[in-house]
Amino acid sequence: MTATDAGTAARRGGRTRSTGWLAALPLLAFVALAFGIPAVALLLGAFTVRDPQSGLSSFSAANVAESLRGNYLATLLSSVRLSALVAVLGAVLGTFLAQAVVTSRFRALREAVLTASGVLANFGGVPLAFVWIATLGNSGVVTKTFGLGESGWSLYTFWGLVMVYMYFSAPLMVLVMTPALDGLRPQWREAAQNSGATAWQFWRHVGIPVLAPALLGGVVLLFGGAFAAYATAQAMVGSTVPLVTLQIADALTGDVLIGHENIALALSLDMIVIAILVMAVYLPLQRRSSRWLR
């Protein structure tokens, strides 16, 4: 092959499209079936209103508007408040626990905590609600033993649900933050000490900026887990604490006015929008803080 032929072949190769994406076709097809079709159906249903008299359906924003008023808006705001509290408190507690594990000299303790965190982070639903009801419910063992009911204690409140959600949120944050804390090099702390920096200055100017991507990711993860949780709240508090997931379940079972059957889809669309807004805030912050790791 001459030099001219080689150059022509190289130019042709530059214009040739890669066919490597063909290997991802099965995954793309699965994503389209598992996520794409339900998302399209949800979007169409949220903007579809049926006339109770004629039975005809039409496109309208009435369902979305209704989902942002009255009791529906109250449940949405309550879920956001609950999720934000669980995310912040779980992130703080989980980070301190992870720091204690990383700085511990006992390897057995580290392995035990990480193993327990892996189990507890996936422990939820009705079994988790049963454990807490049997322990701190109105007739729970601890409640009866120490007479907590006489002092006005009740597990079936907003703050009781926050405490229960912390049971799986804090261990999840431990799993997220432990590798990040392991990435803090001892040489950085030594260099800061040799430069006369205090422990607070080290964490403010070095430690926290380096850990920021993991911290932000953990907060978003905890927020999403609490925001989408259903079974634990349903089994423990029922309708005592207004939550959007419980409201969606009631709407799906027919607890709506005639002609507003798709209000559950509109509430689901509201949840998706909130999740997108959270990610829209998280991604720029994560990109900015990740510069420290380059």
Offer a quick outline of the entry:
The protein is mostly helical and 294 residues long. 72% of the residues lie in helices and 2% in strands.
Low-pLDDT runs of 5+ residues are none
The quaternary state of the protein chains shown equals: single chain
Order of helices and strands: HHEEHHHHHHHHHHH
- Which fold name corresponds to the CATH topology of the largest domain? MetI-like fold
CATH class of the largest domain: Mainly Alpha
Protein name: ABC transporter permease
Membrane topology: Multi-pass membrane protein
Keywords: Cell membrane, Membrane, Transmembrane, Transmembrane helix, Transport
Domain ABC transmembrane type-1: 76-282
Report on this model:
- By secondary structure, the protein is mostly helical.
- It has two domains: 3-46, no CATH class; 63-292, MetI-like fold, CATH 1.10.3720.10.
- Helices cover 72% and strands 2% of the residues.
- The protein contains 13 helices and two strands; from the N terminus they run ααββααααααααααα.
- The protein has helices at residues 3-15, 25-46, 62-67, 70-103, 107-120, 125-136, 141-146, 158-182, 186-194, 199-228, 231-236, 244-252, 263-289; strands spanning 48-50, 57-59.
- It has a two-stranded antiparallel sheet.
- β1 and β2 form a beta hairpin.
- α4 (70-103) packs parallel to α8 (158-182), α5 packs across α8 and α8 (158-182) crosses α10.
- The radius of gyration is 26 Å and the shape is globular.
- 25% of the residues are buried.
